[in-house]
Amino acid sequence: MSQEKTIGTEEVKKVENLVKKHQDKKGAAIPILQDIQKELGYIPKEVLPKVTSLTKIPESDLYSIVTFYSQFRLQPVGDNLIHVCHGTACHLAGAEEITNALVRELEIGDEGTSPDGKFTVEKVACLGCCSLAPVMTINGETHGRLTPDKAVKIAKNI
Questions:
Q1: Which of 147, 153, 150 is nearest to 96 (CA)?
Q2: Are 119 and 80 in contact (CB under 8 A)?
Q3: Is 129 one of the annotated binding-site residues?
Q4: Does pTM top 0.90 for this prediction?
Q5: How is the cofactor bound (predicted)?
Q6: Which residues lie below 8 Å from residue 81, measured CB to CB, with a gap of 6+?
Q7: Domains plus CATH for the chain?
Q8: What is the phi-psi region of residue 132: left when phi exceeds 0, alpha when psi lies from -120 to 50, beta otherwise?
Q9: pLDDT, tens digit, for every residue of 45-80?
Q10: Is the Cβ–Cβ distance between 156 and 105 less than 8 Å?
Q11: Are the C-beta atoms of 82 and 119 separated by less than 8 Å?
């Protein structure tokens, strides 16, 4: 299920105001994109031409930045963002089974988000909590020494 949606006039105004903060600064593309994502929760593709028209930064450059850096999102995320660590320690301790259980039990779709928009599950390279492996974060809160059942239970109790 695609989460793509059209942004409205209010969001366009927000984008215009965010761009104005950085408009005359050299190297402003990343800070502008960070501010847009912070405000809207993701970077809708349809705002890129607007940013280009206001800054003269080529749309292809903006798209390259958004797709290169993993911090940027072109799709909205669920209300609860779950990161499952897949670093070496977590991988060896069962991260794949945890991810599979979360995807199955939370009914995560192809875009990584549940149909009700409540959860997004993402694999990440390392959360830096190797002594607690396997680890996940939910909305920034770390949970360690997980089993697939424990991970699902924690997520469902949010």
A1: 147
A2: yes
A3: no
A4: no
A5: Binds 1 [2Fe-2S] cluster.
A6: 120, 122, 138, 139
A7: 9-68 (no CATH), 80-156 (3.40.30.10)
A8: alpha
A9: 999 999 999 999 999 999 999 999 988 999 899 999
A10: yes
A11: yes
Alpha helices in the chain (DSSP H): 9-22, 29-40, 48-55, 59-68, 88-92, 95-105, 148-156
Distance CA 108, CA 111 (A): 8
Coil, strand or helix at 81: strand
Q: Cβ(145)–Cβ(100) under 8 Å?
A: no
| Burial class, 33, CB count within 10 angstroms (exposed 0-12 / middle 13-18 / buried 19+) | buried
Known binding residue 90? Answer is yes
125 vs 1, 87, 114, 135, CA distance in Å?
A: 25, 5, 22, 11
